[in-house]
Q: What sequence folds into this?
């Protein structure tokens, strides 16, 4: 990831180009946080759901509402004993979801031959923990949440993946999850992210756990393209 060091000086200030680039990156990061997920979604067939946050402004003010489904959305999910549920959430960067979620799903799905995969769920105004409720209502043994991560000044489109075994709303904590972050063109490629996720999913199913007790040791080479 690029670092802002050795930018030079113009008197006692930054050079004009460096200052303008900083302001542009800051604007892109702010835009990524505040915008809604663009439609139509470039995703496989899916169920569109909504968190308990009624709009983007409330979502940003009330993180707790983004962690649970709206009642009308919860009623749409039917349990059917799946091995895994994939949940796509806009998170703090809908830009990341728009750019990268479909590509990552295209990479991971063919690796899961023999798995019972739940219908894809897209949760608007969702945070990571909302995936726990989705998985519980679908009766899925584990959930993989693809979510837009908090933008950095050089990474407004970073996608994160959070894998949780036996998710339980209100009980599961971040220590119970495994995270793969920085999925984007300048970071972790779709192929390598899918390789790491597949490894973690296999190990989670074998050992019946995720989180701090499950270490990612999939190998797979360099992270940068």
A:
């Amino acid at each position: 990831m690029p670092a802002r060091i050795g930018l030079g000086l113009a008197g006692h200030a930054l050079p004009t180009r460096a200052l303008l680039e900083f302001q542009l990156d800051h604007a892109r990061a702010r835009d990524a946080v505040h915008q809604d997920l663009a439609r139509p979604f470039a995703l496989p067939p899916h169920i569109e759901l909504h968190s308990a946050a009624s709009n983007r402004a409330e979502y940003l003010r009330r993180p707790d509402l983004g962690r649970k489904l709206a009642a009308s959305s919860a009623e749409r999910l039917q349990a059917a004993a799946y091995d895994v549920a994939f949940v796509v959430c806009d998170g703090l960067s809908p830009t990341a979801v728009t750019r990268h979620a479909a590509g990552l799903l295209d990479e991971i799905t063919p690796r899961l031959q023999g798995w019972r995969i739940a219908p894809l769920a897209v949760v608007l105004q969702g945070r990571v923990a909302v995936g726990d409720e989705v998985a519980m209502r679908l009766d899925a043994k584990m959930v993989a949440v693809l979510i837009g991560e908090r933008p950095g000044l050089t990474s407004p489109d970073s996608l994160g993946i959070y894998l949780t075994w036996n998710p339980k709303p209100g009980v599961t904590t971040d220590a119970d999850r495994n995270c793969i972050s920085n999925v984007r063109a300048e970071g972790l490629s779709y192929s390598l992210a899918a390789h790491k996720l597949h490894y973690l999913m296999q190990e989670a199913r074998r050992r019946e756990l995720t989180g701090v007790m499950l270490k990612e040791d999939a190998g797979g080479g360099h992270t940068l393209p």
